[in-house]
TrEMBL record:
<dbReference type="GO" id="GO:0043190">
    <property type="term" value="C:ATP-binding cassette (ABC) transporter complex"/>
</dbReference>
<feature type="domain" description="Solute-binding protein family 5">
    <location>
        <begin position="41"/>
        <end position="412"/>
    </location>
</feature>
<dbReference type="GO" id="GO:1904680">
    <property type="term" value="F:peptide transmembrane transporter activity"/>
</dbReference>
<protein>
    <submittedName>
        <fullName>ABC transporter substrate-binding protein</fullName>
    </submittedName>
</protein>
<dbReference type="GO" id="GO:0015833">
    <property type="term" value="P:peptide transport"/>
</dbReference>
<dbReference type="Pfam" id="PF00496">
    <property type="entry name" value="SBP_bac_5"/>
</dbReference>
<dbReference type="GO" id="GO:0042597">
    <property type="term" value="C:periplasmic space"/>
</dbReference>
<dbReference type="InterPro" id="IPR000914">
    <property type="entry name" value="SBP_5_dom"/>
</dbReference>
<dbReference type="InterPro" id="IPR030678">
    <property type="entry name" value="Peptide/Ni-bd"/>
</dbReference>
<dbReference type="InterPro" id="IPR039424">
    <property type="entry name" value="SBP_5"/>
</dbReference>
Amino acid sequence: MYLCEPERLLSQESSEVCGSQVLDVLFTGLVAYDPETSEVVEGGMASSIESDDNVDWTIEIEEGWEFHNGEEVTADNYVDAWNWMADPENEMGNASFLATAGFEGYQEVADGEADEMAGVEVVDDYTIEVSLVEPFGPFELLIGYTGFHPLPDEFYDMEATEFEEAPIGNGPYMMDGEWERGQRIMLERFDDYGGEPANAQAVEMRIYDDVGTAYLDFEAGELDIHDGVPPESRTQALEEYGDRAFDNEVSSYDYLGFPTFVEPFDDPDLRKAISLAIDRESIIDVIFEGARTPATSALPPILPAHRDGACDYCEHDPERAQELYEGTDGIDGTLELYFNSGAGHEEWMESVSLQLEDTLGIDDIEFNSLEFAEYLELHDAQEVEGPYRLGWVTVYPSPQYSMELYLEDSPSNYAGYDDPEFNDLMAEANATEPEEADEIYQEAEDILLEDLPIAPLWYGLDTVVHSERVDNVIANTRTFIEVADVEVVE
């Protein structure tokens, strides 16, 4: 099956799709999600997650689960992993989710004043108690996220970088050899898995740096599953492969981000002008062959809080774009557009550049593209100096996750956005019962879309194809293939 090159294979650090697809089958967290709605369903390790006040939570985990090395999975494996993630010396990006949920004692650990979080306690081998500093309604949804996976005792006897060469998880598949960068990741079924056993005996995740090359391999019979059919091949794939090809509506969207920490992108009017100059519908029709939906909100349509038309600056309005642009200092010199290479972004980025030239008169434009892992390193170092393409996947059905990356302390806040009112509203919504929080999240979204540190472009629609050798190929809203469900029929 197709796989893009992961940046990391460590749950406590990984937040990108490529690595998360692998970790999704190597590990089973406390909560499982429905592939169509991302809502909580049976299949996770937690038998119950309960709270009377959304502050103090009791987590009961199933007995009898094992890691791939034979160790039993107990409450300690979760709690130790969370404390290790919280330790600032380990520099784990997903530690920010401990802060998001408000784990009591996290800040003291992050500040170097404590070794462990005071609000996390192992009651017995199968019971965990978590105390938060304030109510956090989406806790059960959050706790199934990749960053909260357990770690075996063996992990602490090696360097993290050594561990991720062949991660030891508790999921339906285990590593068969080490991660072969640029080539493949081989998996074999874990026959002592504590949940529903996987169907296929073995899986080869073949790493590609270009979705088009992967599709050529699929057509040549060298690949069984490709969940990233390039847009220019979508119509042909759907027509030629019949019920072995399908579109998958996902909880993702692409956006054009702006490095607000450098001039001239610290000017909201410049950001708005660029967004208004982009003809999203034209790009979708011509480049994507209709396989996208124009984004008019920072929340994907799968969420009840989604509102069509929430973004006033996401429509194509050349006159308004020109008017706003003329009131700014404009672009002095070369405008650099950044995107990750090999994922089908080159053609639509070219269209964006032509639209910016036609509408705003920006004619000195250069492209800066890197492979995904290097691209994220560039963002981490804040070395991006122009508008950039990124996407976001809502891995559980809460606006909290969709807008988490715009908080000042989020590791994925590559725009450098920091608005106190937005931060406060997000905190208020997070402390509210999920069924009552949507209106507050929408208030926060209004602030975000007025400042426009990112310009939503389009919602995701992945085209998946599979060979006659396999059946029961299910793609979930998080853009992952449900690997354990795939059946080999030949």
